[in-house]
Structures are given as C-alpha cells and as structure tokens.
Design goal:
Elements lengths: L4 H13 L23 H7 L4 H7 L2 H21 L6 E5 L1 H11 L8 E5 L7 H4 L5 E4 L10 H20 L11 E6 L4 H13 L3 E6 L3 H11 L5 E4 L3 H8 L13 H6 L3 E3 L6 E4 L14 E5 L2 E5 L2 H15 L6 E6 L16 H14 L5 E5 L6 H17 L10
Parallel strand pairs: 1-2, 2-3, 4-5, 4-6, 6-7, 7-11, 11-12
Antiparallel strand pairs: 8-10, 9-10
C-alpha cells in the first residue's frame, strides 16, 4: 500500500458494496502506507520476525520482499485456520504479486484465490506454482492512481472473488480408501484413458493429473495431505525435466515420486514421456540444444529428444527413488515406445535408447523390486491392463478394494 493504496481501498469498497466484509492487509516492505489497513505492515513483518524499519535500513529489497511474503503467508494461513476469511484477492506489480501469491500458496486447493497483476501476461508459473490461483492481467499499470482501465479490471476482480466466496466449493478431504491418481500428457492420453476406464469400472475414484511440473506437484501435495490412496504414475516425464534441469515443465517442487514412496501408498510407475523435454516456442530452446531432434507439438510447444547420456542420468535418478520404497511399488517399462512421438516411425523412435535405459535400471534397481519390461508401447491397451492389474493387486493386498464404484 505504499504505492497502490488507492487501488487497494477501491477494491475493498467494491467488495463491501457487494455485501461482504473486506479485511485489508498492507504488505508494504518499504515506504509510507497510503490508506487504511486492517492489518499493518508492522504486524505482517513481525510474523517473520522482522520490522519494516529494519527492512528499510537494510536496503536489500529482495530480503524485504521475502520477509513480507513469509509474514503474509503466516498471516493468511492463520486467518484461514481461524475461519475468518472466505477468499483472498491480491494486487500488485512484480514484487507485490510475489508477496501476494506466496500468501495464497499457503492456502488449500479449493479455497478462493485471485491475483490481479501487472505482470500476469508473462511467466506466471513462479506465482501460481501448483495452486488454483486465478490470475487477471491489470492491462494498465497501477502507477499514477486509478484510471478508467484499472477501475474496470478491479471491478471484475471484486465480482470474481465474491462469486467464488459465495458459490465456490472446497476440495473434499474425505478419504474413501479408493482414490487413485493417474499421470498423463497428450502423448500418453490414450494410456490414461484406458486406465481410467479400467479403474472406474472396478469401483475406484480416479483423478488424472497433467504431467506438466505443476500437475505432478499438485498431485504430490494431495498425496502428502492423505487424499490419494494409490498412484498409477504412467507419465514420469517430469522426472526427466527435474533431473536435466531444462524445459518448460521443470517441477515447482523437487523430488518427483518421493511423497508417494515416503507415504507408503501403492505405486505402479512407467516411463511415459521420459525420452523428451518440453519448451515453449522453438525460439525458447537454448542455442546449445537447437541441433537436437525437435518436434513441434504445436506452434507454442516444442518437444526435444534427450540423448543417451541424459537417458542414463534419468535412469539413475529413477532407480534411486524406486530403491527408497519399502513395498507396494512396481515399475513397468514398455520396450517399444514411451509416447506417440516415440513410436515406430515417430520423430523420437529410439529402441537403442530404451534398451540402454532398461539395462541401466537392471544394474541399479533393487532385485526384490517388481520391475517388468513388456513388449508393448505405452498406449497399448494390453500394457495398461498389466499396470492396472498390478496396482489392483497392491490395493487389494492393502484391503483397498474398489467398493461400490464411487467416482
């Protein structure tokens, strides 16, 4: 509120006009507050063990932003736990968006969250992470006070957050013992659809997650929260991008697979999409990788084949994580293809690479681990049926049968 006090006050007034109370938090790390805050920057900074005067004196703006973000997250999480808020909306530029979105990410999936930002048309992944944050581009900057553009944008934002608070729905934390997560990409969608049909037909409740970094992170947050009972991890594409640290889908949270293994829930994993990484437009691919095999998934999404040395590195990481498991974990590898593009005749077809990957795993994976190499492509119904069959054996051993088909 040191630079956007008028906008914050206006947003509050719009929410109040719609019959709701609006609690205004000032996250200004430096500068004089413009307007009336219900929770001051002093209170928020103190949550992080700091004070605005100390942050101002240090002169390190990044440190100040981090401190206010921590304080805002602790404040918002406390208000949520105490049942004092039904939604949260933030506004800002790059720094204000960083603070507000950090606070929003402390809240559970399903709780209304909205960010109005001057940088929302750029790379907003660091702000959103793996949470359901609605983002609106402010179009006009917030510098210079309210104008006819920002008035309209803020009015729409107020209507949106009020609508979410009035009519939205929180994620149910009910545990049925029959909830299975599946991972998929467009290249493994056929496999995921087959698995979905088989598992739902057997009475399991199934949730599919897009293996886009944020999707896997969201799935693993739900696993940690006890809302997922088993994982059919058909598409471990995110592990490749994590290990190689390149691509548009680098996971928000490192340690792909670890939450499920540490939780001890049944997992059947496969190698869907592990032979390539994703980028945005072709121009977004680093110069040193431009000579690789590249296939344009669409004009805005380039897929890049990884080389054999990189495949070995990924195999080592996969083996290390599998070897952490105590039980109820299996790996099924289709030896013909790991994706549509990796199928015979496709741009990423590489039987030598798959053989190298399999041989490396055989050297690294614990001998007591269930590890099967099957003569199928990942999207073959027969391959998926084998994976689902193993997962059901795990579930039935744990006493988690499909029940009455709660979907």
């Amino acid at each position: 509120m040191d630079t956007k006090g008028a906008e914050a006050e206006y947003l509050r007034s719009l929410i109040e006009l719609r019959g709701h109370d609006a609690l205004l938090l000032d996250v200004s790390p430096i500068g004089e507050t413009l307007g009336r805050a219900d929770i001051s920057s002093v209170e928020i900074a103190s949550k992080a063990g700091r004070s605005p005067s100390e942050l101002t004196a240090s002169g390190v703006r990044g440190d100040a932003i981090a401190a206010m973000a921590e304080g805002a997250a602790l404040t918002i999480a406390g208000l949520y736990r105490d049942g004092k808020i039904d939604g949260v909306v933030g506004l800002g530029g790059n720094q204000g968006s960083a603070i507000a979105s950090t606070a929003m990410r402390s809240l559970p999936i399903g709780f209304p969250k909205m960010l109005v930002s001057t940088v929302a048309s750029g790379n907003i992944r660091p702000f959103v992470g793996a949470k359901d944050i609605a983002v609106m581009f402010s179009v006009s900057d917030f510098v210079g006070g309210l104008n006819f553009v920002t008035r309209s944008v803020l009015a729409n934002a107020a209507a949106a957050i009020v609508g979410m608070a009035e009519s939205g729905e929180l994620v149910s934390t009910e545990t049925t013992g029959r909830t299975v997560a599946i991972t998929a990409l467009g290249n493994t969608e056929a496999a995921a659809n087959t698995a979905l049909e088989l598992l739902q037909g057997a009475g399991y409740r199934v949730i599919t997650f897009h293996a886009s970094g944020a999707g896997g992170s969201a799935m693993e947050e739900l696993i940690t929260g006890g809302m997922i009972d088993a994982v059919l991890d058909l598409t471990l594409h995110e592990l490749t991008e994590e290990v190689l640290a390149v691509g548009a889908y680098v996971p928000v949270t490192p340690g792909r697979m670890v939450p499920a293994i540490e939780k001890g829930i049944p997992v059947v994993a496969s190698t869907g999409g592990m032979e390539y990484v994703c980028f945005g437009p072709r121009s977004s691919i680093p110069a040193e990788l431009q000579d690789r095999v590249i296939y344009m998934h669409n004009p805005y999404n380039a897929n890049l084949k990884i080389n054999h040395e990189e495949l070995v590195r990924v195999a080592d990481a996969l083996a290390e994580r599998l070897n952490r498991a105590s039980n109820n974990v299996a790996l099924f590898v289709p030896k013909r293809a790991w994706s549509v593009y990796g199928s015979p005749g496709g741009p990423f077809f590489d039987p030598e690479g798959i053989a190298l990957f399999v041989d490396r795993l055989k050297d690294r994976v614990r001998p007591d681990l269930i590890f099967r190499v099957l003569d199928y492509s990942i999207n073959d119904e027969e391959f998926v049926a084998e994976c689902v069959g193993q997962l059901r054996r795990f579930l039935e051993r744990e006493g988690l049968d499909g029940g009455n088909g709660n979907r």
